[in-house]
């Protein structure tokens, strides 16, 4: 029973991250600099390697 819920949540969380990144970029007129790290498995963008590792753990390690 918890399986589909977890899958739905992850799908939602991924969409949320994607929307937030787009909104933030729009808000700050952000151009992604050369030092940005883009996740290889989803549209998530981090601005340092530690954050990207954190993202991998929370979003893709399970
Ligand atoms: Zn990712």
Summary?
The protein has 62 residues and is mainly α. The chain has helices at 2-27, 49-60, and strands at residues 37-38, 45-46.
Descriptors for this entry?
binds zinc ion, 62 residues, flat
> What compounds are bound to the protein?
zinc ion
Q: What is the terminal-to-terminal distance?
A: 17 Å
How many whole angstroms does the radius of gyration measure? Answer: 13 Å
Helix count from the secondary structure assignment: 2
What is the helical fraction, as a range of percent? 55-70%
Overall outline: flat
List the helices and strands and how they pair.
Layout lengths: L1 H26 L9 E2 L6 E2 L2 H12 L2
Antiparallel strand pairs: 1-2
The structure holds zinc ion (ZN).
Folded structure, characterized:
This protein is mainly alpha-helical and 62 residues long. The chain has one domain. The protein has two helices and two strands; from the N terminus they run H-E-E-H. A two-stranded antiparallel ribbon has the order 1-2. The mean pLDDT is 75. The structure holds zinc ion. The site of zinc ion has 7 residues, from helix 2.
